Amino acid sequence: xxxxxxxxxxxxxxxxxxxxxxxxxxxxxxxxxxxxxxxxxxxxxxxxxxxxxxxxxxxxxxxxxxxxxxxxxxxxxxxxxxxxxxxxxxxxxxxxxxxxxxxxxxxxxxxxxxxxxxxxxxxxxxxxxxxxxxxxxxxxxxxxxxxxxxxxxxxxxxxxxxxxxxxxxxxxxxxxxxxxxxxxxxxxxxxxxxxxxxxxxxxxxxxxxxxxxxxxxxxxxxxxxxxxxxxxxxxxxxxxxxxxxxxxxxxxxxxxxxxxxxxxxxxxxxxxxxxxxxxxxxxxxxxxxxxxxxxxxxxxxxxxxxxxxxxxxxxxxxxxxxxxxxxxxxxxxxxxxxxxxxxxxxxxxxxxxxxxxxxxxxxxxxxxxxxxx
Length: 373
Prior knowledge:
Helix content: 25-40%
Oligomer: single chain
Structural class: alpha+beta
């Protein structure tokens, strides 16, 4: 089967691939409102290594207007595989229209990875269902189709941080505000920073929580610890820990790049379940984000059915300042060769393995509970 044909970029637009240095990438990334940790050089380097990473830069009249970092996975000894762009491309600037730039960015990505390299290209853009509908239309017109059957992680709450701190607090649900007041009356100490020792301390209580709740971790916390060590100072994740006496009772980790902060991890220790420290930590984080000028707090994933407790916590935190949204979806561009079928076959095996692992953990947890009854 023949590969797809490239589409010429609009006049004044050019693209460059794998010509940028790490320092330039990290600096340019911070110029965009929709910059995020998944598009940082360090995230790719720690994850799959730079040999499996590609960087595309889109320019208009010589000025950089969009970026995209792709994870590239190939089947050994053959030129077939997949290129995956998570929360990209990066193209938003608040002072400029972005529709045309978005079109040229996804066209350049398709030209490079689908047409030139013959890879199955998948995009997971940070575009939500309350964004203008033309983004989905552009993707369709540029040769992308919606990837069916992958709804996990597609729903989140975006919290508007433009009101004053008083307005943000007033917008919280009554229950959340009551719990925050209780936490503020307790003798709790908040520690914040980005050092590795704080990350290590957080992991200790995170492990306690995972063991207590018996769930399959959606992200490898140790993987993010390595990313933290590799990130430059200005892009490092924020770590907040809450102490009750000499013990750490709760903690959270978030990333604040561009104009959006992303809630990545939260945990409460076994001894800290009644401390309400998580309420105080989120409030202290909101104070810091307001000082920094962050516009949005992405609470990063909700599932009212599978995890109703976490959903309620996030919903009540955001209150009237929150928007319950869905990503418009994941999109893919087919290369028109046998690579697509090979990749999807491998993915089916990996999906079956992950599902079996989750069922094993749930079954083990149920057996443990029965054994304790």
